[in-house]
Structure formats: structure tokens, C-alpha cells
């Protein structure tokens, strides 16, 4: 499929972000949610920071202290054979998993959708027991006059999905947990369908090692029920190992289009498409057999966690899919796809 990548890519990089503390460095700005507010494109950036600690003996995990309302560093001995350091993103010992970075969310604004002014102060930071390992990968669904922001909250209790809302991206109201552990990759449909809210979500089964996409409904965006299975990994190819919802669905004449991500046996992240029924979104009409967007450029293949293109947001305008995506868990980039090409792939 033909993909247009902005020649300005990456449009936002770690060097563009001021660290929140002198002893933290920004190692990634990626997986941005996107919407429009008046004449501006709004990005809600995930900012990942890691301790500035040069040591060949220890790895450090930043954790939010609820009592002190600040971040402290927990150290892990690199020579301890009982600790798993195989994933650069985390450390695992007998106590469980700890992240090597901590994330918060920050707003960026643009008139042209490419050149962004990034706010100095964070929009949302960890502040409760479910967020002590950080908050990540927001999605924005505008419903009526309110922007609903759901994001991943991480703690030793597990991976939950939290809901907040705003009308201006200056002040926010937290509403609570939408989906309990372990559940992420939640996207809320941007309008009620037959009077109900709908969301795609990705529960994880430790017993069966399952990572499938499900759909649920709600009367109020907090109490979710009538959960239904949607799709599984394909079992072979680009989305054989793991899948999850990515961008908020958008409506076309053919139905709801969901851009989702898939992971293969080499831990390579690509994007594909789903077509869901307009009035019964639990009905899958079609699914792309091949990826519609995959890592190819140097900035997508090399970085903190390479071979990754991952989107948390898009704008569907003028029959174009305007993707804001994370590259290699390091950068924010921009690409465009034609709806006609996507519909051909779906059919």
C-alpha cells in the first residue's frame, strides 16, 4: 500500500522535550493521541524518562512515591542471576516487573499538523496507586463537547486503563479505572451507537497466553459490560503473535474503520485495518491480510525499541488517513494513507 511519510520526520524527537527533573533524561516521545481543537491539531504525547545514572553495575527503575509525591529510583544489580534484564524496557525479579523508564503525558499544538509547539508543563502525571510506574499511550475520543482521554496506568497491581476528560486541554478531570488488569489498547468510539458507548479493548490471559481484541458497551463510559470477542492474532505473518487496537475508530460509508497493530515472531510492530459494522460494531466485516504500514525507514527500525510503528491517533480528513505514530518507541512521526487504498485492502 502506498504510504506518504512526511519529509520532516521525525516531527518530534526527545531533544525537543525538556526533562521534568535534572536527574532524568527524555529517552522517548512517542505514541501520541491526536484530535482537533478549534484551528489547532492537538497531540497528547507520551514522554518516557529514565534516570541519568551511568553505571555498569546497576539498572535503575523510576517509581512514583505516593507519600512524597515525587519519583525515586530503585536499583537492580546487573550481576544478580535471578534478575531478568533481557528486555530493555523492563527488569523482572522475584517481586515482579519494574519499568526502566516512567512516562507522563504532555500537550503539543500545531496550526499545520507538522510543526508543533510543545508545552513546558505536563498535562497528566502519575498521581495515584495505579499509576506509580507511569501513564502511557493515551487515546482521545471527542464525544459531544467533551474530549475523553483514556490512557494506560501501570503499577505493581497490573496494567489498567484509566479515564480522564477535558474541554480545553488545560484542565483535566480524572474519572477512574475503565478496565482492570491486565487490559490496555482501549479505544472508545467517538459517538454513541444506538444510545450506548462502545470500546475496543485488549485483555491479557496469563493462563492461555492470549492477546485478543474484544468489544464492550457502557451506559456511562465507566461501567463496561456485554463483552464480546472480536479477533485473535492471525497465527502467521505480520500479526501472528499479538494484536491490539491502536487509533480511535472512524466512520465511513462502509462502516467503522479501526487501525490496529500486530506483532510478529520477531517482535516487529506493524499496522493493519479492520472494518466493523456501523450499527453492530461487534460484527467484523473484513480485515486486511497484509500490513498497511510497517517499519521500513532507519528511524522506524532503529531506536530504543526498534522495528516499531505504533499509532494511538489519527485524523480522518478529506478521505485521507493522517497517522501520527511512534517510531521505534523513540520518536513522533507523520504519515498519510488514502482511504481508497485501505478499502481496497479490506475488500
Features:
347 residues, mainly beta, Tachylectin-2, Chain A, five-stranded antiparallel β-sheet, 26 strands, 3% helix
Based on CA atoms alone, the radius of gyration comes out at 19 Å
- CATH architecture group name: 5 Propeller
Helix content: under 10%
What are the secondary-structure elements, in order, as H or E?
A: EEEEEEEEEEEEEEEEEEEEEEEHEEEH
CATH topology description:
Tachylectin-2, Chain A
Task: Provide the number of structural domains.
Answer: 1
- Sheet bearing the most strands, described? 5 strands, antiparallel
Averaging pLDDT over every residue, what do you get? 96
Secondary structure: number of strands: 26
Kindly provide the name of the CATH class.
Answer: Mainly Beta
| End-to-end C-alpha gap | 13 Å
Strand-residue proportion: over 45%
Shape: globular
Which spans have pLDDT < 50 for at least 5 consecutive residues?
A: none
Helices, by number, come to 2
What can be said about this structure in brief?
The protein has 347 residues and is mostly beta strands. It is built from two helices and 26 strands.
Structure description:
Helix content is 3%, strand content 52%. It is mainly β. The chain has one domain (4-346): Tachylectin-2, Chain A. Strand 4 (58-65) and strand 5 (70-77) form a beta hairpin. It is globular.
Amino acid at each position: 500500500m502506498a504510504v506518504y511519510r512526511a519529509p520532516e520526520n521525525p516531527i518530534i524527537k526527545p531533544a525537543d522535550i525538556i526533562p521534568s527533573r535534572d536527574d532524568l533524561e527524555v529517552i522517548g516521545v512517542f505514541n501520541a493521541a491526536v484530535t482537533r481543537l478549534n484551528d489547532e491539531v492537538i497531540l497528547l504525547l507520551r514522554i518516557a524518562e529514565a534516570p541519568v545514572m551511568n553505571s555498569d553495575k546497576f539498572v535503575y527503575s523510576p517509581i512514583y512515591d505516593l507519600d512524597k509525591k515525587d519519583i525515586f529510583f530503585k536499583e537492580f544489580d546487573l550481576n544478580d542471576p535471578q534478575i531478568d534484564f533481557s528486555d530493555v524496557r523492563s527488569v523482572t525479579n522475584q517481586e515482579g516487573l519494574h519499568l526502566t523508564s516512567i512516562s507522563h503525558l504532555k500537550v503539543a499544538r500545531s496550526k499545520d499538523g507538522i510543526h508543533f509547539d510543545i508545552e513546558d508543563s505536563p498535562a497528566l502525571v502519575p498521581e495515584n496507586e495505579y499509576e506509580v510506574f507511569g501513564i502511557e499511550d493515551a487515546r482521545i475520543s471527542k464525544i459531544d463537547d467533551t474530549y475523553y482521554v483514556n490512557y494506560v496506568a501501570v503499577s505493581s497491581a497490573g496494567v489498567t486503563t484509566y479515564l480522564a476528560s477535558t474541554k480545553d486541554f488545560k484542565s483535566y478531570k480524572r474519572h477512574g479505572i475503565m478496565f482492570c488488569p491486565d487490559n490496555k489498547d482501549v479505544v472508545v468510539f467517538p459517538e454513541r451507537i444506538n444510545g450506548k458507548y462502545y470500546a475496543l479493548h485488549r485483555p491479557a490471559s496469563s493462563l492461555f497466553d492470549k492477546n485478543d481484541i474484544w468489544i464492550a458497551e457502557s451506559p456511562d463510559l465507566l461501567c463496561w459490560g456485554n463483552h464480546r470477542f472480536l479477533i485473535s492474532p492471525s497465527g502467521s505473518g505480520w500479526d501472528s503473535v499479538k494484536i491490539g487496537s491502536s487509533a480511535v475508530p472512524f466512520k465511513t460509508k462502509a462502516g467503522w474503520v479501526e487501525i490496529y497493530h500486530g506483532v510478529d515472531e520477531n517482535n516487529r510492530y506493524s499496522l493493519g485495518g479492520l472494518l466493523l459494522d456501523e450499527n453492530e460494531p461487534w460484527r467484523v466485516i473484513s480485515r486486511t491480510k497484509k500490513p498497511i504500514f510497517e517499519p521500513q525507514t532507519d528511524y522506524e527500525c532503529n531506536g530504543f525499541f526498534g522495528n516499531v510503528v505504533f499509532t494511538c491517533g489519527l485524523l480522518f480528513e478529506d478521505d485521507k488517513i493522517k497517522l501520527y505514530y511512534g517510531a521505534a518507541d523513540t520518536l513522533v512521526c507523520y504519515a498519510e494513507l488514502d482511504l481508497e487504498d485501505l478499502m481496497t485492502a479490506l475488500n
